[in-house]
Amino acid sequence: MDEDVAMMDVDGQETPTSTSNSQWVAPPASPQDLSSVWTAENSTQQRIIQFITRWPPSRTPFAYGPWIYASRGGMSEGIAGQDIPGLKAAFQALLGAGRVTVDTVDQISKTNNVVTGKWMIFEESPKIDMLWGKILHFVTVERKKGVVKVSTCKEGEKHVICIYVNDYTNKPEVDALRKGLRSLGVKWRIGFKTDAYTHLNIYKDNPWNLRPSRFQE
Fold first, then answer.
1. DSSP 124
2. According to the UniProt entry, which residue ranges have a biased composition of type Polar residues (predicted)?
C-alpha cells in the first residue's frame, strides 16, 4: 500500500528541509508512531480525539513520513495470498500480446488475488483535519473494519485520504463504502483505484489509455 504515494505525483518534489516550523507537531520517536491499530476495545471517541490531535494531517510534515495510518482489521482476507510478482509477469505477457484493457487487467488481478482497492478523497490542508477525523471515526467506530490513511503535509499539494476495501470486484462492498462516505459529506465525485493499478504503474496519461480510477462516483 505504500506505493500509493506515487499516485500523488509527488516524485521529484522537495520535502520540507526543516521541521522547526512552529506550525508542525513534535516529531515522532519513530515512523511507526504514525501508524495505529484499532480494536473494539480501544475505538473510543477519546482515543480518536487524542490521535488526530497528536497527528493532524495539516500540521504533520511529509518529512515525518508520507502517511498517517489507521487499521481497524478485516483486511487480512484481501491481502493474504496476493501474488504481486505473478501479477507483474502476467501484465508483461499482456504487453507482449498488445492486450492491455480494463477487462484483461481485471482478469490478471483476480487470478493473482490482487483485488484490494481504495476510494481516494483529495482535500486542501485547511479542511483536511476535520474530514480525516470524520473518516477515522467512521472506519473505527461505525464500519468497524478496514484500513484508512491520509497523506501528511507537503507544501503546495492537496492531501489524499485512501479508504480500503478487501475486494474491488465485490461491487456491493465498494458501493456500500461510497455510500458511507457520502453520509459524511463527501458528495462530490471521487475516484476508486485498485492496488493492482498502483503495482502496475497505471497512472494518468498511461500508454494504454486506461482511466487510472477503476470507478468514479
1. -
2. 14-24
Give a yes or no: residue 98 inside a domain: no
Phi, psi of 36 (to 5 degrees): -145, 145
Q: Is residue 121 part of a domain?
A: yes
CATH code of 115's domain: 3.30.760.10
Secondary structure class of 147 (helix, strand, coil):
strand
pLDDT on residue 80? 72
Residue-level pLDDT at 21: 60
Cβ atoms of 55 and 24 closer than 8 Å = no
Query: To 5 degrees, how large is the angle CA 95–CA 97–CA 99?
Result: 70
The three cell numbers locating residue 133: 477525523
Residue 202 lies in a domain: yes
CB 179 within 8 A of CB 135: no
Q: What angle do CA 160, 161, 162 make, to 5 degrees?
A: 115
Residue 156, judged by CB atoms within 10 A of its CB (0-12, 13-18, 19+), counts as exposed
Shortest CA distance to 115 belongs to which of 71, 91, 85, 79? 79
- On whether residue 2 sits in a domain, the answer given is no
Amino acid 217: pLDDT: 94
Count up the domains in the chain and report the number: 1
Work out the angle at residue 209's Cα, subtended by the Cα atoms of residues 215 and 213, and round it to the nearest 5 degrees: 20
Query: Which range marks the domain in which residue 180 is found?
Result: 25-81+108-216
